[in-house]
């Protein structure tokens, strides 16, 4: 009887060790989150853009209702920022942020919404919308992205993320196309 109990405990410990290894012990697996800045996000896409680590914290901060902000902190270090803005139609977000995009490395236009810029370490997409009955624009930006290490792959994932997230973020803020 005692031998069976010890065998069960041993099997449970072995199973726990295997599952811990499969779950990404050592921080080798991408984080999987399904919400950021108060909106749903594709866990596969955003997880690939975040650094690997042991602990992920998402800090949502809102300067006002139409300006969601969140920061991703990995292992105690702020890494990636994601923000949305509802702005006036006369504002030219891609022009205003041109110098910031230069700092993010090799900005290039992308075919997302009404215009977008993808850089080596971030990107921005803009789409005209109606917010509370008024013509406005929604701006979605992400910066501080260092992962994946391959720059071409990182840029591809940034573009894919902004393309999929722009309509979701707009909907969440009540900014209708």
Protein model, in words:
It is a single chain. By secondary structure, this protein is of the alpha+beta class. Helices cover 35% and strands 33% of the residues. It has helices spanning 2-22, 43-49, 93-96, 98-104, 151-173; strands at 35-36, 39-40, 56-62, 68-74, 77-87, 108-110, 115-119, 122-131, 134-143, 175-176. Strands 3, 4, 5, 6, 7, 8, 9 and 10 form an 8-stranded antiparallel sheet that branches. Strands 1-2 form a two-stranded antiparallel sheet. Strand 7 (115-119) and strand 8 (122-131) form a beta hairpin. Helix 2 (43-49) packs across helix 5 (151-173). Mean pLDDT is 83; it is low at 1-27.
Uncertain spans = 1-27
Shape: globular
Please write the string of helix (H) and strand (E) elements.
HEEHEEEHHEEEEHE
Per DSSP E runs of 2 or more residues, the count of β-strands stands at 10
